[in-house]
Specification:
The complex is a heteropentamer, with 1 copy of chain A (266 residues), 2 copies of chain B (270 residues), 1 copy of chain C (251 residues) and 1 copy of chain D (297 residues). Helix content of chain A is 80%, strand content 0%. Chain A has 266 residues and is an all-alpha fold. Chain A has 2 domains: 1-30; 33-260, MetI-like (MetI-like fold, Orthogonal Bundle), CATH 1.10.3720.10. The two termini of chain A are 22 Å apart. With 251 residues, chain C is an all-alpha fold. Chain C has helices spanning 4-27, 39-51, 53-86, 88-103, 110-117, 121-145, 149-157, 162-199, 205-214, 218-246; one strand at 200-201. Chain C starts with a helix and ends in a 5-residue tail after the last helix. Classes of the chains: A mainly alpha (266), B alpha/beta (270), C mainly alpha (251), D alpha/beta (297). Chains in contact: A-B, A-C, A-D, A-E, B-C, B-E, C-D, C-E. At the A-E interface, loops of A face loops of E. Bound molecules: adenosine-5'-triphosphate (ATP) (2 copies) and magnesium ion (2 copies). Chain A: Residues 53-233 form the ABC transmembrane type-1 domain. Chain A: The chain crosses the membrane at residues 60-81, 93-113, 119-138, 182-203, 215-236. Chain A: Belongs to the binding-protein-dependent transport system permease family.
């Protein structure tokens, strides 16, 4: 059976369980309302969910730019320069260790309670993993390649764009995946904590009044965002695979394109 | 070998004056976790502009290290190096080009794109770049392999792409670290002749590392022989054989005695 | 490592500078000291808090939960991540699903954990595990993908078994990426356990911190945050120590 | 001895004081049971914990009981605990000159949407016939955002309200304990099934809890000391908390009282106005099975 | 070169019988993004147990590909290959050992640990392993370099570590892909002689790829000459020079004519 079939079966199975378990009373509706009632709740309040989704998407989009764009760039710089790496990396990862979620209510004091604070929170939340993953990925690059580029007079930025990032592309992409997912989580969580708009706000509001179908309708929307984001990354991955062939990841990707051409890696 | 029709590299013309290399009392000490390694000690060397100098010496004697220092890729522990009259604290492709001992191709670029890489760095236009890369690939006998990625090439092919990448940069000083090591004898000869042709046409200064003594004498104006650890220069031969060189000279006495002289050094020190 | 002392000094200098800025901001009233008590006050409070037996007990409880959750999540996550990276079939089945699970805010599932585990040690550990495992899986997959094909070929030619390949080729070559992942995972783990404690608890430091926050006890709140940060940083340093010991072969 | 797991919605909320007193005065012991106190993040979380079987007897908003029945969680209010929002106040910065009426079109901080503070904010809008934006900022964000000027007023709970009023940072413009008409806002709650299985245990638990309340009423000094210690607040504030909340709690607890259905109905009506849907009639959630007999201390 | 005191590899003793290699009508087609490449076509070849066979051919003719298939590291597109009588769908270190064209050392292991690697996989005890690795390193002239990491070694040194890693396994069939390409002539000769000594002592079957025709004839029982794309066998020479071989033979007629015969093939095809 093909993997996609199995996956579909699993998804169908999950969906079926989601409908049956609450209906049969195995799980109280409070914890998991049936899928149909969730969908109905979402549909009935579409007028409320649509603008909330727009707010969340806007915040996610901006945070994504900061977190992923900035994370990759800074990770690349820090990862390729040994001195800043030794100096900054420990500080950065230590900084990330400060439990932001707890301090978030206090931060809103300075950042305001609108979109800005959500964007700031989600950006930081997604930025560090992206940056750390990128920086770490860069350390696995063959130093000989950097030497070659240097000998050809590549400037720092040229090395970054033409050598470091392409060479680290599998790590960068997974960093992006993690970072992007965290941005979504970050926006929703901060909306859940403090806000008066967005999917997260709806989730936490409905939750406070024990309206679980509406809570899960919100969760479904978050899931939909994740699915869309995943599709986008997949697309980039496929593009990148064509020119990324020196590593395991590249190999796997190439195999996907021409299954007969290469041996399985192990 | 795929289509060995080696053709002149049209765009390699004598644009820039060749550079001089001055190496003065240079030493290199590597600090390792276990002990310090004196790789080179008190190496001095003068390469006049436009000379073809070959560096030979036993494995691990410091040839690559010396080349890396001339390229500005590694700083000497002591002494000074100047290229075209100025020190080289940083790699400078306008003064020096390098062909590495290991091919070091970018795995995510095709052969063609690898060769174009140094040109792209300098902002050469796409079409110009492509044309020059094609020429260079033709020169190394890889016409038609431009679209392949490094992992789809054989060992010798990769090395040739790397040579093409070095040539396409057209630097006044060209440093080549065992560029022909992975090539069969026929290709090696053809490539050697091509290199001499380009060198004659452009008047570049070439420093060339090889383990083949025949190749050394065949190509060189001067051969520099190094001794192992700590690497030092133990001999400096002038090869006064006339140019253009031919393979008939290989059986001549002059050739034989030069080769023997080097051989004795290598034999002793290895 | 050779410039170790300079770097260490610079690092200490940066930390001291940060605390100094914090102190100045608060003392001069540039930032309302009620909202940001000065560094010295916070540290004094931290000292007082650490004197209390109850706080020490809470710390011990939290630490036990964190360590247990971590010790469970990392090997299990790494194994799954490895399988995903190695087995295309498994990857195709599981990767998207895991990714979706990763993208949902975990706190939504807190009630489920109470449903399954009740309130207590296993619920905290369970939620800590749940918050951590996805990032471990995803990072392991990343790390595996950075391994060079030649090295795998060499190992294959020597007849390395999958386990040997895993430990002798994958592990060392993935190490930098993996250690970074470990650090991030620890932070997720810590946050997960603390969230679970804040959500429902009889003890644990997260529970304390939540109360301080809701009571507008900024000194205690900041001191608590510093406390947790110090734990996380200590762990970070531990990982870094492993890292420097293991990767001296890199230039 | 049987163990009862008591769920409390937040640490610095009066139920915690009562339960802690009962534990410290060994009232559960005297009833021959042991109690395990668990503090949750908020009312909804406490209710969920009870639904999940992690808490046996909880103190919570009565409206949640009604909402819960529609979600397959059958529980009832066993004893009435509070008929007002004691200590809850609408506050502005002391230097602000705003009155309640002036809040029209302004921003008011609440803890979270749908929570008790939201209910009170909504009630204020209705009662005073004004419109303002309710901004959920979380418990930890109330005072900081008020101080920073991000909001114009905030619905603050006790003893935080007493604290910032005492420190001179904020002043009260509306005292909900006075203004809101008496309604059965909070009660002790248990699942129907639990009540059915362990009526004895429930009775003993209620006895101990109301015994604790009696103890507190009778021992001001000891109670203030306990509050000071538990909440890490100055004793003056603790004294205020004692006077303004503890002393106002229902001492009887019986759900038989003539006013109970009406007060409960009022509470549900407020919740409905606050956005809760699907609330059943008050009668559904009243259990008259127990009459707390305060444990002697 | 550090301390060229090459000493016998004590632990390489004739434990296992040598293996036979049978290659029957083997073809290999690579599918690339642009087009299909026929790398090998209809290659058939018999190597009797204990023979020393050298494979020569122009760069890119498919030598490495053929070796990879014999090692079970790549499956042929058509035809069959058997090693010691059985097909080799998977690499099997008990039947075949490989020395790769590129050193491919593990950068995180020291030279010593790299050599120990195959032994560690088989669960050889630490001390035994260390002793055998030491012997192998001594053999390739790298005594005293055991504690260095690959990036601290020169190109030739890395290649020698890789050879040591291949030898320490002691497989009945040894496949070596241009193992001496990065070595100077003296080291190359010494290593060649060492290899012959081990081969004689152990009776292994060796398939050896080289670009040096002199080396090919000096080492081989048989030389197989391949033509470029699609790779085919164009000649199969028996080298009947007596053993032990000496460098004096290089100037003999028999040697010269064999070398010339190969050279003509290479010249034609390259
Ligand atoms: N980064 C390094 N750290 C420590 N030692 C090094 C380093 N690089 C080179 N060496 C040592 O310096 C010496 C010279 O190395 P180098 O690479 O220059 O030799 P080479 O002459 O090019 O040899 P080959 O012909 O084998 O390539 C060797 O002994 C080598 O082990
Ligand atoms: N993975 C691959 N995908 C596509 N083509 C490949 C691949 N590997 C090798 N080739 C092609 O197969 C042919 C033979 O390659 P191989 O590496 O066997 O040559 P070789 O004889 O070892 O050459 P050299 O002496 O240069 O190492 C070459 O034309 C090469 O381009
Ligand atoms: Mg070298
Ligand atoms: Mg090859």
């Amino acid at each position: 059976m093909s993997a996609a079939t199995i996956r579909r079966l699993i998804v169908i199975g999950l969906i079926a369980l989601w409908e049956i378990l609450p209906r049969a009373g195995f799980i109280p509706e409070l914890f998991l309302p049936s899928l149909s009632s969730t969908l109905a709740a979402g549909w009935n309040e579409a007028g409320e969910y649509a603008p909330a989704l727009a707010v969340t998407l806007y915040e996610v989009a901006i945070s994504m730019t900061f977190a992923c764009g900035g994370g990759i760039l800074l990770g690349a710089v820090v990862g390729s320069l040994p001195r800043p790496r030794i100096l900054i990396m420990p500080m950065v990862s230590s900084l990330y260790a400060v439990p932001l979620v707890i301090l978030y209510p206090v931060f809103t004091v300075w950042l305001g309670i609108g979109s800005e604070s959500k964007i700031a929170f989600a950006s930081i939340y997604g930025f560090l993993p992206t940056m750390l993953a990128t920086a770490a990925g860069i350390q696995t690059i063959d130093p000989q390649l950097l030497l070659a580029a240097r000998s050809m007079g590549a400037t720092l930025s040229q090395r970054l764009v033409r050598v470091i990032i392409p060479a680290a592309i599998p790590t960068v992409l997974s960093g992006l995946r993690v970072g992007g997912a965290l941005v979504i989580v970050g926006v929703v969580v901060s909306e859940m904590l403090i806000s008066s708009a967005g999917i997260g706000y709806l989730i936490s509001r409905y939750r406070t009044i024990l309206d679980s179908p509406h809570v899960f309708a919100g969760v479904l929307l978050v899931l939909a965002m994740a699915i869309a984001f995943n599709a986008a990354i997949k697309w980039i991955e496929r593009k990148a695979a064509i020119w990324q062939t020196g590593t395991h990841a590249g190999q796997t990707a190439v195999e996907e394109i021409a299954p007969a051409a290469l041996q399985p890696v192990t | 070998m795929g289509g060995n029709t080696m053709q002149p590299l049209a765009n390699i013309t004598p644009l820039k004056p060749a550079g001089a290399i001055e190496v003065r009392n240079v030493g290199q000490i590597f600090k390792t976790t276990t002990q310090d390694v004196v790789a080179l000690e008190d190496v001095s060397l003068d390469v006049k502009p436009g000379r073809f100098v070959v560096l030979v010496g036993p494995s691990g004697c410091g040839k690559s290290t010396l080349l890396m220092m001339m390229a500005g890729l590694r700083q000497q522990t002591s002494g000074t190096i100047t290229i075209s009259g100025a020190p080289i604290p940083e790699p400078d492709p306008n003064r020096v080009g390098v062909v590495f001992q290991e091919a070091s191709l970018f795995p995510w670029l095709t052969a063609e794109e690898n060769v174009e890489f140094p040109l792209a760095l300098r902002g050469v236009t796409k079409s110009d770049r492509r044309a020059r890369a094609q020429d260079a690939l033709k020169l190394v006998g890889l016409d038609g392999f431009g679209k392949r990625h490094p992992h789809e090439l054989s060992g010798g092919m990769k090395q040739r792409v790397s040579i093409a990448r070095g040539l396409v940069q057209d630097p006044p000083v060209l440093l080549m670290d065992e560029p022909f090591a992975a090539l069969d004898e026929q290709t090696r000869m053809t490539m050697g002749d091509e290199l001499l042709r380009i060198w004659t046409a452009t008047g570049k200064t070439v420093v060339f590392v090889t383990h083949s003594l025949t190749e050394a004498v065949y190509l060189a104006d001067e051969v520099i022989v190094m001794s192992p650890r700590p690497g030092r220069i133990v001999d400096h031969l002038q090869v006064s054989l006339p140019r253009p060189r031919t393979y008939d000279m290989l059986s001549g006495d002059a050739f034989g005695s030069l080769r023997d002289r080097i051989w004795r050094h290598i034999r002793k020190s290895a | 490592m050779r410039a170790g002392i300079v770097v260490k000094a610079a690092r200490v200098a940066i930390v001291v500078a940060l605390f100094a800025i914090w102190e100045i901001l608060s003392r001069t009233g540039i930032v309302n000291p009620r909202l940001l008590p000065s560094a010295s006050d916070t540290l004094t409070t931290l000292g007082d808090l650490l004197q209390r037996a109850s706080v020490r007990k809470d710390l011990a409880v939290t630490a036990t939960e964190v360590v247990t959750a971590f010790a469970l999540a990392v090997p299990v996550g790494a194994l799954i991540g490895f399988l995903i990276a190695e087995n295309r079939y498994f990857a195709d089945v599981a990767k998207p699903l895991l990714f979706f699970a990763f993208s949902i805010p975990k706190s939504i599932f807190l009630p489920m954990f109470i449903l399954v585990f009740g309130v207590g040690f296993s619920q905290k550990v369970g939620f800590g595990f749940f918050s951590t495992i996805f990032i471990v899986i995803m990072s392991t997959t990343t790390a595996v993908e950075s391994v060079k094909v030649e090295h795998l070929t060499v190992a294959r030619s020597y007849g390395a078994t999958p386990v040997q390949t895993a430990f002798r080729v994958y592990l060392p070559s993935m190490l930098p990426v993996l250690l970074e992942a470990l650090r991030i995972s620890m932070i997720f783990n810590l946050t997960g356990v603390i969230l679970a404690e804040m959500y429902a608890s009889r003890d644990g430091i997260g529970h304390q911190i939540a109360t301080w926050g809701e009571n507008f006890q900024m000194k205690q709140l900041l001191a608590g945050v510093v406390m947790i940060a110090v734990i996380a940083i200590a762990f970070n340093e531990l990982v870094r120590w492993v890292e420097t010991r293991c990767s001296h072969w890199r230039t | 001895a049987d163990t009862v797991r008591i769920g409390l919605p937040t640490k610095t909320y009066w139920p915690t004081t009562i339960a802690e007193t009962a534990v410290r005065q060994k009232l559960f012991e005297k009833e021959g049971i042991t109690a395990e106190l668990t503090i949750y993040r908020g009312g909804a979380e406490t209710f969920e914990a009870m639904a999940a079987g992690a808490a046996d007897v909880i103190l919570d908003a009565t409206s949640l009981v009604s909402a819960g029945r529609k979600k397959g969680v059958n529980s009832k209010v066993l004893a009435s605990a509070a008929t007002g929002y004691y200590g809850w106040q609408l506050m502005t910065l002391s230097k602000s000159t705003l009155g309640v009426k002036d809040l029209n079109g302004k921003k008011v901080a609440i803890t979270s949407a749908g929570s008790g503070s939201d209910l009170l904010a909504l009630w204020t809008q209705q009662d005073k016939n004004i419109e303002f934006t309710r901004v959920p900022v979380g418990g930890g964000g109330l005072v900081p955002n008020l101080l920073a000027g991000n909001v114009d007023a905030a619905v603050v709970y006790s003893p935080l309200s007493f604290q910032i009023s005492k420190s001179g940072e904020a002043r009260t413009i509306l005292d909900f304990s006075e203004e809101v008409p008496p309604n059965l806002a909070a009660g002790w709650i248990a699942l129907d099934k639990y009540v059915q299985d362990k009526p004895q245990l429930v009775q003993k638990t209620l006895n101990a809890l109301y015994g604790a309340l009696m103890f507190m009423r009778a021992n001001k000094d000891a109670s203030v000391k306990l509050i000071t210690e538990l909440y890490e607040i100055p004793s003056e504030i603790a004294a205020q908390e004692y006077e303004n909340t503890i002393m106002k709690l229902e001492t009887d607890g019986s759900m038989d009282g003539p006013k109970i259905p009406e007060q409960l109905q009022l509470a549900l009506a407020m919740a409905k106005a606050g956005g809760m849907k699907d609330l059943g009639p008050a009668a559904e959630i009243i259990s008259t099975q127990f009459k707390p007999v305060p444990t002697k201390f």
